[in-house]
Amino acid sequence: MLDTAINKVIDQVNGNAPWALVEAFSTMPRWKPEDVEASAHDIARRLEALGVPVELLEAQLYLSIPYEASVEAEGTTFASKPPAYSLSCPEGLTGLLAHVPGTLSATVSSFYDKNRDEAAAAEERIRGKIVLTDGFASPNKVLEFQDKGAIGVIGINPGVDRHWGICSSVWGTPDLDGLPRKPRIPVAVVNNEDGAKLVALAQRGGSATIRTKLEEGWFKSLVPVVNVPGVSEPDKFVLLHGHYDSWDVGVGDNATGDAALLEIARVLWANRESLRRSVRIAWWPGHSTGRYAGSAWFADAFAIDLDENCIAQVNCDSPGCRWADVYENVAWMSETEAFCQTVIRDVTGMGSHGERPLRAGDYSFNNIGLSSFFMLSSTMTVEKRKEMNYYTVGGCGGNIAWHTENDLMEIADRDILIRDIKVYLAAVMAVANAPVLPFDWRATSAEFEATLAKYVKAAGADAALLEPVSAALAELKAALSRFYAGIEAGSVTEAKANAAIQKLARILVPLNYTRGPRFTHDPALPIPGLPQLSVATELSAHGDATKGFARTQLMRGANRVVAALREATRTVSA
Predict the structure, then answer these.
(1) Arithmetic mean of pLDDT over the chain
(2) Which segments constitute the Peptidase M28 domain (predicted)?
């Protein structure tokens, strides 16, 4: 249950300041650099008017600003949009069409999967052609088609709208290692009706011309940051954040999130004497046009401070949207699940259902190793989506106005926004004030156990390669049981417990969510649990020519996992 002090603070939430920001942003497009900068100053002005000190940090971000696109075929020009980071090709590119059928994701959890026909995506079918692909022009599909020799991609969006997006798998501003993954082909999206006409043309062996216009380069970008200092442990902090750039005016994605951060900053600043640890609140640019470039820059620029002092990161995206009656598919890491469910229930009286966080949504801190929860907020029910005949989208509470010019004031709901603000505020305060950080790594070890069982089954005759992992995981589970029993009994001090819980995040979050080293950024591609072991699911597909290489990869991955699990065991046993 939330304590009396937190309940007293969340009762101070009201809709005046946040709703005024939503109304203002509903008239302010926020994807062109000059407009993004103006909105950052607007956020700062509103904070200052509320008496909240704010710092405007300046970042240099590498962004891709999409302007216009078209697809022309047989004398007809189809309206289109170019995803950010696709190749600018205003002079046009013409080629034969090849259709790669696909299915739409039923839930947000599979939204970034490829969802395309394997046989139709064969290299011999698409090399030298413009690929038509059903659904969204997601980075994993664009990367695959480009690598197989496609000269362009046309995404067929599922409804009457054309959705803005980004087709690069590079997370944030590219470094030298990431540059080769930057798209080298033009990409455009059309709506479903026009896409059906193009599919019919492809079946007749027809061709089309793609024209795109984008501006790519370095841009000065402002990052508003509020630091609400804690009284007892001011160096330790919770990071609460969301993006303020949007496609067009982006009311549900993410003006409502910006408004939530504004109100939380106001309330926390007025009650800062009640905070044990600090809360840092940040608004990101470059989310839409730089694949989370703002949060990635912050992770880079303040990496050591985050490593040493950040106890959790909380993402705020698309709260307060119409018809958002349930908390389903809420992102949280396993160690935070019980805590999140308790907060949501205590604030709203509602149950909740969570999922493994996607490689999306400004989760730019996995490689550092931060326990994380929330991304999208409340959403509409499955029944409501069916009633409205809505397909799955990546925000806006499930409203298909997501990433379109229709994401207007009607998408926001003032009462739902206030409810969601209270959830975020209560969660952040509860972490900041907890005597012992409320994260249960026994839940994470249970997740590891389930993941490992899947890999052992898939490995078949090679399952022996995973036996050292099973042994190390059993040792960790036993150590965690003793550790939490010690906390309950009082034999483990609060200081020792918190240091260990934070250290476990630095070890186990990268192990579960990343392939690359710490202080880098993995690509924006789906990552399975314990990814160093995921090659186990591919062993049966390897013949004599490659089986030995796959087994070697699994052995090396197992070594990394065992070493991390043993380090975690030592951490809680010291």
Answers:
(1) 96
(2) 227-414
Distance of alpha carbon 209 from alpha carbon 152, whole angstroms: 9
280-326: per-residue pLDDT in tens?
Answer: 999 999 999 999 999 999 999 999 999 999 999 999 999 999 999 99
pLDDT tens across 419-429, in order? 999 999 999 99
Q: How far apart are the first and last CA of the chain?
A: 31
CA 289/CA 353 separation, integer angstroms: 30
Phi, psi (5° rounding) for residue 401?
Answer: -70, -10
The phi and psi torsions of 343 (rounded to 5 degrees) equal -65, -50
Q: What is the 3-state secondary structure (H, E, C) of 542-574?
A: CCCCCHHHHHHHHHHHHHHHHHHHHHHHHHHHC
The answer to whether the predicted template modeling score (pTM) of the entire model surpasses 0.70 is yes
Residue of 90, 95, 91, 36 lying closest to 63 (CA atoms): 36
Q: State how beta strands 130-134 and 152-156 pair.
A: parallel
∠ Cα 390 391 395 (to 5°): 95
Q: Is 538 buried (19+), middle (13-18) or exposed (0-12) by CB count in 10 A? A: middle
Tell me if 181 sits within 8 A of 143, measured CB to CB: yes
Task: Cite the beta strand spans of 33-177 per DSSP E.
Answer: 55-73, 76-80, 89-100, 130-134, 152-156
Query: Which CATH number does 441-573 carry?
Result: 1.20.930
